[in-house]
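Re: duplicated header lines in exported structure tokens

Our pipeline writes sequence and tokens for each protein into one text file. With two proteins the header for the second block appears twice in some exports. Here is an export where it did not happen, for reference. First protein block:
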Amino acid sequence: MAIEIADFRQARKRLGLTQSDLASRAGVSQSLIAKVEAGRLDPTYSNAKRIIEVLESLSQKKEAKAADIMTRKIVSVSPDEGINEAIEKMRKFKISQLPVVEGGRSIGLVSESTLLQALLDKKGRKIRNIMEDSPPVVSENTALSAVSDLLKFFPLVLISKDGELVGLITKSDILEKFFQK
């Protein structure tokens, strides 16, 4: 997150800090923070740098990570399963896409659309013959904002820890996170 001097007030408020809190953490006076936010004073380079470092550090700590909202149960199919097994899993778990996993790693994706098209085209009956490219795999420490950006282009994002798949995130998971009551 690139924070500009003009953004100090918004960044500070977004983090729930008072001017005194920010001043204390940055090692500057509260009056300096007030004057900078009011546009009455340009801080020295060293003071601006300290304030920006504090704001960026707190922003990174506060931002949710993939592990915070991922669904830990991964329902998947193998490439050698048939279309009917994939449809049954989707119905049973009320989901619309399944990662295709082989040897503990993602090799593809199958969705309701993929299955419907395969049935209409009378393509092969095995998942291997109809699967789409694998969705992205990110670390459990990946910022939620990065996962959200990926979800603009992919129906789901897989989460890994030490090379092992440990969860997944869909658009629905993101919406649920932001609209919890």
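Second protein block, exported in the same file:
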Amino acid sequence: MKKKGTILVILLFILTFPSVLYVILATGKTNFIRLPYVGERQLAPNGKDTVYHSIQPFSFINQDGKTITDKDYEGKIYVADYFFTTCKSICPKMATELLRVQEKFAYANGMVQILSHTVNPENDSVPVLKQYSEMIHADTKMWNFVTGDKKQLYDMARHSYLLNAMEGDGGPDDFIHSELFVLIDKEKHIRGIYDGTDIKAVNDLLDDIKVLIAEYAIKEDRGRGAAE
């Protein structure tokens, strides 16, 4: 068991080494640097710890008609975005960039996921999302496309993923159209927000995902070492 764990850590380190090396060289420090946290933070009741902004519980329906909740992403790193299937402007480019995320982290055995929310649930039904996922060649073991109550979808965009500062009621005239990708860690904290239409920004996202994977691999290895 110990040998298997050590091999996994070595493999993850090799795959994430360029990102870790960049952090070390850029900072001049040999200790591991964690990604920043995005959003408001508060002091915990104990007066010592920090409580970071986190993603609220949710429940939506995916392209296969399955209920997808926040519990499906426990212990996962995931990228969230908002789109709609009939979008002809930014969404095709965003889908292309998310396919890069899918390809890059196919090796991670489910640790890295993608969660795409429709902003047009009136049109984007389960069959429509299914057709769309097949059209862009999404691996739905890794990538969910979800629909549901418009108000909940929009509340998540505004208050959980911090994609739109303008308030709205989720009514017929309310519309969110964002090009942003949001990186969520295993504890449901936002660790980065990126322009999903910009190749360089998505390159940064890919590097940051590697840094997160390395962060967890090092933490888990230290935990195993302490237990032994």
